[in-house]
Amino acid sequence: MVSALLLFLTLPVVFSADPKCPEGFHYFKRVPTAWNNYTKEWCLGVIDGKEDCSNRDFARSICINHNATISMPENKHEFEFVANVSGPGATKMNHAIDGQMSPRCVNKYMKHFYFFSEEKGECNLKRGLFLFDDINTDPSYVLDHAQDHPTGESQHQVNKTTAMVQSIRSCLGIYSAHETKEYYSRGGFFTEFCFGQQLNEYNIKADYSRTVVCGRPPL
Questions:
Q1: What kind and span of H or E run contains 98?
Q2: What digits encode the pLDDT tens for the residues 154-170?
Q3: Which pLDDT value is given to residue 150?
Q4: From which residue to which does the signal peptide run (predicted)?
Q5: Dihedral angle of Cα 22, 28, 29, 30, to the nearest 10 degrees
Q6: What pTM was computed for the model?
Q7: What does the alpha-carbon distance between residue 188 and residue 175 come to, in Å, rounded to a whole number?
Q8: Which end of the chain is more exposed for a tag (fewer CB within 10 A), N or C?
Q9: Is 19-216 CATH 3.30.360.10?
Q10: Are 209 and 53 in contact (CB under 8 A)?
C-alpha cells in the first residue's frame, strides 16, 4: 500500500517534466495543424557539416547521423534562432534547409525563365514548386517570406571548345542574420545548387552552405 502511494505521488513529477532535446538541438513549442502533421513540439539544430552542405545528399546524411531529418523553421521565432547562428568571428554563414524544387519544375525552368510566383500550375511557389522531406514542419512561413523569384541560374564552360553547362539553384537555404539588412528584411531565404558548389558565369565558385538545419522530436 505504501509503495503504491509513493508511486502515485511520483507520477505527476515524471509526466510534468519538460521535454528535452539532444545536445546541439533547441526545443520549440508549435501550434499543431494538419500542415505540420499535428506536431506540438519540435527540436531544431543547426549542424556544422565542416564541408559543403549545399550538396543535398550530404546535408541529409548529416541529419540522419543525428537521428533527425533535414528541416526548416516554421515561424519567426524559429527563423530567428536559425538565422542568428553564425560562423567563427560572427561571420555570415549560409544554412541548408529542407525544400528542393521538383524535377518537373526544374525542367520548366530550364526551358522558360519566368517568375514562379506568377505560375498558375503545379510549379507555383505556394503550391508544388518545392518538395519537402520533413512532414512535421509546415513550410508556409518559408514560402511566404521567400523572394518572388527564389531561383537563379549559372552558366559556364570548361573551355571555349566545350558546350555551355547550365545549372539551376533549386534547393532552399537561409542567410544568417549577419547578411545584409536587405536580405534579412525579405526573410533571408534563398536557393542554392543542390549538388554543391558550382562555378558561375565568371568561373568563380558560388557561395554555399556549410551548415544544415536538422529537426527531430524531443527525447
A1: strand 95-101
A2: 555 555 666 666 677 88
A3: 54
A4: 1-16
A5: -110
A6: 0.78
A7: 5
A8: N
A9: no
A10: yes
